[in-house]
Amino acid sequence: MGAPADLPEAAIRRLDSSAFSSGLSVPDFAACLDLGLQPVGLVQGFCVMRWGWYGAGSGYMRGLNPYSGGGQSEGAYVETYRCPHGFVSTEHRMWGQNLEQTWVEEAWSQGYGSAYSRMLEEATSLGAHGVIGVVDRVTHLVDAGTTEFHFLGTAITVENGPPPAGGVPWTTYLAGQRLTKSIEAGFMPVSVAASMASVRVWAYCMTEYLMEGSRGWGGPTSPYAVDQVSKAHMASIQLARKHVRQQLSGDMLHGAKIEVVKRELAQGDEVVDCTLRGNRMRRFKDFDVIPPARPTVRLT
Questions:
Q1: In a domain? residue 15
Q2: What is the pTM of this model?
Q3: For residue 276, which phi and psi values (nearest 5 degrees)?
Q4: What per-residue confidence (pLDDT) applies to 215?
Q5: Are 194 and 286 contacting, i.e. CB atoms less than 8 angstroms apart?
Q6: Residue 135 CA to chain centroid, in angstroms?
Q7: What's the rounded Cα separation, in Å, for the pair 215 and 212?
Q8: What is the 3-state secondary structure (H, E, C) of the chain?
Q9: How many distinct structural domains can be found in the chain?
Q10: Most exposed: 120, 135, 267, 296, by fewest CB within 10 Å?
Q11: HSE-CB for 248 with a 13 A CA cutoff
């Protein structure tokens, strides 16, 4: 059925010519056409996830370690710190812990995966082979312990290309020249890959003193590393890498980006969240050999 006759002539031509939407810039769109990729529509997915915070006395904090039999996932990162001063008072923090918040990571993965799947559903309904120029916007509402996930991308078809493997379109953050160069180098996108690691810092006395600028009881007078916080940051990065490696199944991660966000919960207490994103790529051909340069001007 054609467009209604009461529309402007330009609108009628656009609707009758199978108009599409795209999130690509003009250069990226031109490079897309050069590769034989035809945009068919702007697709998106959305999800909101909610979880709670846990404090001292919670089953997710004190005593939770791989040997305690608590609710924490087996093999999760946990590190305990003890006060070097002995009993001082009931307000003195004699115990501290760095703890991987696996329930936060699971909620993040579920929300991210749901939004991603909904974007793929839209792309599949358009008959797309892939989605390029993917943008994932993850917004934290700190006070509510809520995270919003929003995916955007441009669904494309491959000229004379076979259907996507398993009927699921491939995805990538890349577009334009970056995508062109990757394919020329012999790497084809498989999917976007992302993970989040969350580490809770429950400060003990030394961390509390040092984070507030005090040397504490018998503490050093010279510059001193805040060991508990430093280890929490490094642990969050290492855990994020570990989670992404589990998604790759032997493929490679290109264009990796690491983002670390710190949120203070109380004096000396904080949460360190590390997000790692990248393009899961698979080699489909060898590098094209570049011929050696030849002199074109004689100097003698």
A1: no
A2: 0.78
A3: -120, 125
A4: 57
A5: no
A6: 11
A7: 9
A8: CCCCCCCCHHHHHHHHCCCCCCCCCHHHHHHHHHCCEEEEEEEEEEEEEECCCCCCCCCCCCCCCCCCCCCCCCCCCEEEEECCCCCCCCCCCCEEEEEECHHHHHHHHHHHHHHHHHHHHHHHHCCCCEEEEEEEEEEEEHHHCEEEEEEEEEEEEECCCCCCHHHCCEECCCCHHHHHHHHHCCEEEEEEEEEEEEEEEECCHHHHHHHCCCCCCCCCCCCCCCHHHHHHHHHHHHHHHHHHHHHHCCCEEEEEEEEEEEEEEECCEEEEEEEEEEEEEEECCCCCCCCCCCCCCCCC
A9: 1
A10: 296
A11: 21
Whether the CB-CB separation of 281 and 190 falls below 8 Å is answered with yes
Range of the domain at 41: 23-283
User: C-alpha angle with apex 97: 73 to 206, nearest 5 degrees?
Assistant: 170
Phi, psi for 147 (deg, rounded to 5) = -130, 135
CATH at 254? 3.30.110.70
pLDDT at 27 > cutoff 80: yes
Residue 75 lies inside a defined structural domain of this protein = yes
- Among the listed residues 77, 73, 49, the one whose alpha carbon sits nearest the alpha carbon of residue 228: 77
Region 246-273 average pLDDT = 90
* Length of the chain as a residue count: 300
Q: What is the pLDDT of residue 66?
A: 35
Token readout for 153 is: 């991308």
Beta bridge pairs of residue 281: 189, 252
Establish if 167 belongs to a structural domain.
yes
Read off the pLDDT of each residue in 277-293 and give the average, rounded to a whole number: 81
User: By CB neighbour count within 10 A (0-12 exposed, 13-18 middle, 19+ buried), where does 114 fall?
Assistant: middle
Q: Which amino acid is at 190?
A: V
Query: Which tokens in the block code for residue 232?
Result: 């929490």
The reply to whether 192 falls in a domain is yes
Whole-number Å distance between alpha carbons of 15 and 5: 12
Pairing of strands 130-141, 170-171: parallel
